[in-house]
Amino acid sequence: QLQLQESGPGLVKPSETLSLTCTVSGASISSNIYYWGWIRQPPGEGLEWIGSIFYSGTTYYSPSLKSRVTISLDTSKNHFSLKLSSVTAADTAIYYCARLTEDSISSRWDYWGQGTLVTVPS
Amino acid sequence: DIQMTQSPSSLSASVGDRVTITCRASQSINTYLNWYQQKPGKAPKLLIYAASSLQSGVPSRFSGSGSGTDFTLTINSLQPEDFATYYCQQSYSTPITFGQGTRLETK
Q1: B43–A49: do the CB atoms touch at under 8 Å?
Q2: CB A66: neighbour CB atoms within 10 A?
Q3: pLDDT score, position A33
Q4: Of these four, A13, A17, A78, B64, which has the most CB atoms within 10 Å of its CB?
Q5: Which residues contact B11 (CB under 8 A, 6 or more apart)?
């Protein structure tokens, strides 16, 4: 059974870098079938895609965050990571990692981590 | 960016009702449309992909339809566990975008 688990600090100071890791069990992130990515949700608000990464290391980022985001893979540990620099209170959110399955008819987030709340005080 | 607009933003219904939620894309996205259910304190759960394909393990009372710019999620015979927030999401092009959500509440 595939499981994803986010980990990282729950509190990040303004202007610093938010760093989260998503550990994957039950599947290899080296698979050439799936993408892996991050999605966030400010408390009480909707979902925002941050970015995705393929096993090859190819990345796709939200234009609104691209200048501050880095997503990377560590295949030896079967995990992938998110770094978001120069954070402000607007980056306070629940951060989810997820798997993206892509085929000829669809691209969909089919497995999600439980989410981790990251707070940036104002 | 492709904008996704859901209606209504909130909806009150009773167990046993049939409910429909609409999602409209700002441009054609073919059938690259997914639906998710989110309960409080939980991660979103994939219900429907490719506009009308039911994700494995999802009850058959959930169905999706549409193509181009207009899509619907229908829940037949609403069950107590279906009261949640529902999101549509387009995967036609990056950036991937979600609708603002529809909160389904008990009447």
Answers
A1: no
A2: 14
A3: 87
A4: B64
A5: B19, B21, B102, B103, B104, B105
Collect all residues of chain B within an 8 Å Cβ-Cβ radius of residue A106: 31-32, 34, 49-50, 53, 91
Distance, in Å, from the CA atom of B84 to the CA atom of B101, rounded to the nearest integer, reads 10
- Write down the pLDDT at residue A74: 94
User: How would you classify the pairing of strands B10-13 and B102-106?
Assistant: parallel
Q: What is the pLDDT of residue B59?
A: 98
Mean pLDDT for the stretch of residues B66-75: 98
Specify the residue for token string 């015979």: B77
Q: What does the block give as tokens for A48?
A: 């925002």
Helical spans, DSSP H, in B13-89? none
Q: In which residue are the tokens 């303004």 written?
A: A14
Cα A49 to the center of its chain, rounded Å: 9
Residue pLDDT, tens place only, A66-84:
999 999 999 999 999 999 9
Contact B37, B47 (CB under 8 A): yes
**What is the torsional sign of CA A111, A82, A20, A86?**
negative
Query: Measured between CA atoms, how close is B17 to chain A, in angstroms?
Result: 26
What is the per-residue pLDDT across A31-70, written as a single tens digit (0 to 9) for each? 888 999 999 999 999 999 999 999 999 999 999 999 999 9
